């Protein structure tokens, strides 16, 4: 179907006149004189090919053609007004869609408070939340399938991506409740030397994996990893069954499993960083809005 070329002033004048059925009243509403209003209506009638109003002395009325056009004209003007409002909202960073990737463990710390704060400030924004580990998040940011990432242990430098640390937390030992070391309030890392380990695969987060193994190496041993799992919930479940022990970010202790004990470690100097990540050349105006929310309401430690 060929698109009609109908100037918006003509369409607007038609709707107002159809509502008023009086040239003087309609001209007043439009803020113009009657002659320009009459000209707009005549031009529109030429476009349509039929009269839209019947004109009688002291009275005008819609013709059948005018009555048929009126609902479509109102709909077109309403759609345009809504479209303009939506475009302005997106352009101003107060509406639109924001795609966020997050590491599953951050649902225990950063994510809930951040999303709550952001939604309170920008309720018109549609949030698309996707769970993924650090390495897939970095790829998704570069491929522009997410706008923001919430991840652990970001790269030290990346030419395309920006990072801002929002939380630094220590590590804890994750033990079966029946393990002899679970009776202690603090576990020295070297006491885990003879234990099998359950860890994340290195591929899903190399920096975090290396941090954990380096804690062991600094204590004089290389961890004997016998089981891998992508999610911390699964790691804790495998520890509960007695398949091994683990070292995990402190927030993981919020995973409540009866058969799992979380204990502080010594030395207690290592910290794992949680960061927000974004594309430096991204164009979504909602990204700086979220970064502002992070800075104004930083997450609490677990």
TrEMBL record:
Residues 6-63 form the HTH lysR-type domain. Pfam families: HTH_1, LysR_substrate. The keyword Transcription applies. This is LysR family transcriptional regulator. The keyword Transcription applies. Keywords: DNA-binding, Transcription, Transcription regulation. Belongs to the LysR transcriptional regulatory family. PROSITE patterns: HTH_LYSR (PS50931).
